[in-house]
Amino acid sequence: MNLPAFQALCRHVSQSLQAEDADALGTGRPSKIRGETFEILWQPDGQAAVLLTYLGAVDDDHAKQVYEQLLLVQLTGWNDLDLRFGFDPVTRQVLLCTRLPAVALLEESELRALLERLQLQVERWREVLLRPARIQTPFAGFMSPDEQVTSRSARESGGGLS
Description:
Blueprint: H1 3-16, E1 31-33, E2 36-42, E3 49-57, H2 63-76, E4 84-88, E5 93-100, H3 108-129, H4 145-156
Antiparallel strand pairs: 1-2, 2-3, 3-5, 4-5
Helix pairs in contact: 1-3
């Protein structure tokens, strides 16, 4: 799909979802759709594209904990390639980064459905992902790399349990 066709596809989807600026999404600019901000970045060769969903800013008092949680969620979801977070240094917002199929294969109905699904989830994700919380993970019981080295050394010298 060439650039004009991609821009037309994004314009049609934006119009159907009542975006504030119907041309923004197809030109790589943030687009407000029903109060939420989305942006599409794509390679000119059409091989890679990503939809950015602006989740919001993190309270400075809890930034370290929240960013650690986001990285942990991303790590524990390693097999979900669409569970990736980013950070926009200009707006200081956390972004959800969702892969899109190759631009040549992207269809209006798929893009519209994805945007609608994300719109329904964004508010809930803000409440859950951008606030400090205790997250239970399978990694909680694993030893740190330093503990693993100490444990291995103790076993090898006969001082640890087998």
